[in-house]
């Protein structure tokens, strides 16, 4: 038998070896564990970014980043191609930062992705740092979602399969359903185009709360007042017609142009929203907004 001192030495040696083996096993599996954690974190960020994209971006850039003619350029693959063009001209920032800064600060001038394409409005700022509605973590998630397209490949070209109401104010509208209109506003149902309405991305229903555009609290009452205003130059004769005109032809009358005009005579509100809506979509949305007195 070993004496007490020897037994202590042997015990300490065994304990040390067990500790070394345990640390080694942890070290060997840590890289895999961290990789799994990072993959889960990235997947969650992409999922959150997809929801943000649908809410804030799809109206101008298409549900899969394919672009909307006359409204916003394709991002898939357009944003990656544009970045490579900038790099060829000496742009030194990363692709991630390029996308992040574009979302955060917007574009103060109309897009020039391609010389033959012209878009009606400048891109607004989206970061809270620049007066927009999005937190820094939301912008990071949105960037992660857009970067995910790079691996997925380009989006298919859009194939509209519905009759858009467009900008024609004379087009007859069916009776509106205010409950469905509210569901459209809340993005609980989609428009006939398959895209979610983006109204609440720019307009709050809280009195006095300004996002990109003015609050629509009490818009039914306000619409009745505006068509009587001396500076009103639109065609509307009723509050319903005013709301319709504001959606289909937002440049017809721009209230407080110092706040809500992107350029002289050009509203910050996209002029092509009607291209994403059916007559029923528009009628339902107007019916809902007319309940906001």
From TrEMBL:
> Matching InterPro entries, A to Z?
Cyt_c-like_dom, Cyt_c-like_dom_sf, Cyt_c_1A/1B
Q: Which UniProt keywords apply?
A: Electron transport, Heme, Iron, Membrane, Metal-binding, Transmembrane, Transmembrane helix, Transport
Q: Name one Pfam family in it.
A: Cytochrom_C
The chain positions of domain Cytochrome c read 44-150, 176-293
Would you say which domain of life the source belongs to? Bacteria
What PANTHER family does UniProt report for this protein, alphabetically?
CYTOCHROME C (PTHR11961)
Q: What is this protein called?
A: Cytochrome C oxidase, cbb3-type, subunit III
Natural source organism: Thermoflexus hugenholtzii JAD2
Organismal lineage? Bacteria, Bacillati, Chloroflexota, Thermoflexia, Thermoflexales
């Amino acid at each position: 038998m070993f004496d007490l001192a020897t037994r202590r030495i042997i015990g300490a040696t065994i304990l040390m070896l067990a500790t070394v083996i345990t640390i080694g096993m942890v070290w060997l599996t840590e890289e895999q564990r961290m990789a799994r954690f990072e993959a889960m974190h990235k997947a969650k960020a992409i999922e959150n970014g997809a929801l943000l994209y649908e809410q804030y971006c799809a109206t101008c850039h298409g549900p899969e980043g394919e672009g909307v003619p006359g409204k916003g350029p394709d991002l898939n693959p357009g944003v990656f191609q544009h970045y490579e063009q900038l790099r060829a001209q000496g742009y030194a920032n990363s692709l991630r930062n390029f996308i992040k800064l574009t979302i955060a600060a917007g574009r103060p001038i109309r897009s020039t992705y391609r010389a033959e394409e012209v878009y009606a409005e400048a891109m607004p700022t989206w970061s809270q740092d620049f007066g927009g509605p999005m937190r820094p973590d939301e912008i990071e998630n949105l960037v992660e979602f857009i970067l995910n397209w790079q691996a997925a490949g380009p989006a298919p070209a859009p194939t509209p399969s519905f009759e858009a109401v467009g900008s024609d104010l004379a087009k007859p509208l069916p009776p509106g359903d205010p409950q469905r209109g509210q569901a459209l506003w809340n993005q609980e149902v989609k428009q006939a185009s398959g895209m979610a309405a983006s109204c609440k991305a720019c307009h709050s229903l809280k009195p006095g709360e300004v996002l990109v555009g003015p609050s629509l609290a009490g818009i039914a009452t306000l619409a009745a007042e505006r068509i009587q205003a001396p500076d009103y130059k639109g065609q509307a004769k009723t509050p319903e017609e005013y709301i319709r005109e504001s959606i289909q032809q937002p440049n017809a009358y721009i209230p407080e142009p110092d706040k809500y005009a992107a350029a002289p005579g050009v509203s910050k509100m996209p002029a092509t929203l009607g291209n994403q809506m059916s007559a029923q979509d528009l009628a339902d949305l107007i019916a809902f907004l007319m309940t906001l007195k």
